[in-house]
Amino acid sequence: MPSGKGNRSGETVTMRAARNDGTLRRLLSFVVKGRVGIIVIILICVALTAVASVTSGLFISILINRVITPAITPDPITLEMPGLEPYMSNLITIMCVVGAIYVVGIAATIIYTQLVAIHAQRIMAGIRRDLFAKMESLPIKYFDTNAHGDIMSLYTNDVDAMYQFLGSSLIQFCSIGLTLIFCVALMIWTSIWLFLIAVVGAVIMFILARYMTRLNRKYYAKQQKALGETEGFIEEMMSGLRVVKVFTHEEKAVQDFDEKNNELYEHSRHAMMVGNIMMPIMNNIGNLMYVIIAAVAFIFVYFDVSNIGLQSIQVLWNEDYDMALNVGAIVSFLMYTRQFFMNFGNLSNQFSMSARALAGARRILNVLDLEPEVDEGYVTLVNANVAEDGSITETDERTERWAWKHPHKDGTTTYTELKGDILLDHVDFGYVPDKIVLHDIEIYAHPGQKIAFVGATGAGKTTITNLINRFYDIQDGKIRVDGININKIKKDSLRKSLAVVLQDTNLFTGTVRENIRYGRLDATDEEVEEAAKVANAYDFITRLPQGFDTMLTTDGGNLSQGQRQLLSIARAACADTPVLILDEATSSIDTRTEAIVQRGIDQLMAGRTVFVIAHRLSTVQNADAIMVLDHGRIIERGNHQQLIEKKGTYYQLYTGAFELE
Questions:
Q1: CA gap 191, 307 in Å, rounded
Q2: Residues paired with 443 in a beta bridge
Q3: What are phi and psi of 375, to 5 degrees?
Q4: Which of 205, 179, 349, 191 is nearest to 287 (CA)?
């Protein structure tokens, strides 16, 4: 396979740029890694195909010089035509050899095309798997700062562009390159002077291809970027279509889409114009050179000057070989010329087509190069047996009791029972280091306590919960769970100790039972149904057409918002964690459903440490502590009665003097 090495003067800008940033090299590493045997077989078959494609000219020359010309040339003495019979054996031999070569070529073509198809699909499956695995390992920040449609464009447009390169363009480079090598060898063998004329045409074609490929690379890179942005906008508008229609912004949405679509159109238009014009130009240059070479060959033969200056070179081949052109040599050379320029043009076209693939590959490789979510924790969550004296031992069986396994530098290991004691100690945080959004946050949540956060939008309520599960890391201060700094706890263990119910429910394609079991994949059917009962979702589930086996699609579009929220709460109940985070869990449901959900939440909260974010102050009145936030600071704290007696911000919110926005 091409490696990007060799004669640099023969590289296009696209290939050189791709090599310099490592894109081409890494693409080739996907091709070769662990599959050297298949690559060797493919290259052998491609070489056989290339040989079969260029040998026709050689056999035409032999056929003309050894069969046709002698058969139609009269005897100089008798002037009689010798006829075909004396040369029949030569004709049969030539036909058999040609037939055998083409059979081998056809077989080789079938073999390598099938192997390439299988191999390319295997490579793309691996790339998609690596890309998805990388996405799963990235921090939440990546998804907060990149449009979902742009991310999906990686899996569709960019992966498809890579497949076109790996499944088509790459093997074409090999086939065309080998064919050109064989053509050049035969052209030099036939007539070095005519070959030098062909080189002039090749140089012209190379200069044009180099210039046009530079343009194409730029336009294709812009096209892929604009395509991702356009698809991101489409995904955003489709998911928010109800909002668009409610506010009658259909025309504005169309206008915004037209702007992005027109930008994509312009970049695509330029890319396609340059790409589509290259092949016709190359073909016509090839046709022109074909005519020029035919005319020069006629002059050489007519004036018998084709072997001038070749006497010294002649020895390199064979002293008895006649270097002078004849009819057979001219016909074969013209066939080589046609193949040479056709393949040279195809090679230039493949470079142009590969520009899109390399632009898409670069976007994918940029994602694969992103740093995964850093996890330096070493404290893990394990199943535990807790004796009457409080001693803890680790077990492989599920005991419904958990402990933090804490290895120490001296080789000892201690176990701390998971209870859900949460401490935020003078925490400062900013999404970017120079812009702090949380200032000196102090929160104490003992096991079984309910802590509520209230405040205007943007006050920092959700940000605090994102810090507890380490979606983001703090700039200063400490966060402890059961006395252990969460930086020491492995993130997956920390998050297994938490359950989260968000305002925006996310249900996956699957049955109701599978969506609830998502909270704990090893939950039994009985535990799933018990979780539904805890969340007060059991009654409506059993009234569905197939009950717990009812299939949900499109984020549970066949359920009401309240029903989707109940399933989300049931999922948290199934997780059965000691810490529960409720982020506006009842804000999007009606008052009647809220009462049902609230009863389920009350059952779910029993014995657990709970953090509640709520706009409706009626849902937090029974909280053990209420934190009132404003611009990233806790300005008031206390229970409902204490805060009412203070007659501060909470009192004004509760009495309606202020409103949460």
A1: 9
A2: 424
A3: -140, 100
A4: 205
Distinct helix (H) and strand (E) counts, the chain:
23, 16
Rounded Cα distance between 341 and 360, Å, is 29
17 pLDDT band, cuts 50/70/90, is very low
**Residue 42 to residues 105, 123, 196, 347, Cα–Cα distance (Å):** 13, 15, 32, 19
pLDDT of residue 405: 92
- Residue 309: per-residue pLDDT: 41
Supply 433's token pair. Answer: 């280091």
Q: What is the DSSP string of 499-556?
A: EEE-SS----SEEHHHHHHTT-TT--HHHHHHHHHHTT-HHHHHTSTTGGG-EE-TTT
Q: For residues 237 and 257, is the Cβ–Cβ distance under 8 A? A: yes
Give the DSSP H/E element, type plus range, for residue 243.
Answer: helix 241-246
pLDDT of 211 higher than 60: yes
* 3-class SS string, 355-400: HHHHHHHHHHHHHHCCCCCCCCCCEEEEEEEECCCCCEEECCCCCC
Residue 5 pLDDT: 38
Q: At what angle do helices 23-32 and 88-137 cross, to 10 degrees?
A: 110
Residue 570 to residue 542: CA distance in whole angstroms: 14
CB 117 within 8 A of CB 202: no
Are the CB atoms for 287 and 340 separated by under 8 Å? no
What digits encode the pLDDT tens for the residues 238-292?
Answer: 766 656 665 667 787 888 888 888 888 888 887 777 767 777 777 777 778 878 8
**Residue 413 DSSP SS3:** strand
Count how many residues are written for the chain: 661
Residue 38 pLDDT class (50, 70, 90 cuts): confident
For residue 394 the two structure tokens come to 């680790």
Contact between 204 and 348 under an 8 Å Cβ cutoff? The reply is no
Statement: residue 431 has pLDDT above 70 = yes
Distances (CA, A) of 356 to 124, 216, 257, 278: 16, 8, 23, 15
Nearest to 469 by CA among 442, 495, 501: 495
pLDDT tens digit sequence for 286-330: 778 878 888 887 777 766 655 544 433 333 344 444 445 677 777
Residues 646/616, Cβ–Cβ less than 8 Å: no
| Of 104-113, 164-173, 177-186, highest mean pLDDT | 104-113
- Please identify which residue in the block is written with the tokens 């194409």: 216
pLDDT band at 379 (very low <50, low <70, confident <90, very high): very high
Tokens of 546: 């197939």
How would residue 588 be classed by pLDDT, with cut points 50, 70 and 90?
low
**Do the beta carbons of residue 580 and residue 604 sit within 8 Å?**
yes
Measured CA to CA, the distance from residue 96 to residue 411 in angstroms comes to: 80
Could you write out the DSSP letters of every residue in 626-647? EEEEETTEEEEEE-HHHHHHHT
pLDDT in tens, 441-492: 999 988 888 898 988 878 888 889 889 988 888 999 999 999 999 999 998 8
Name residue 580's beta-bridge partners: 499, 610
Tokens of 396: 């492989």
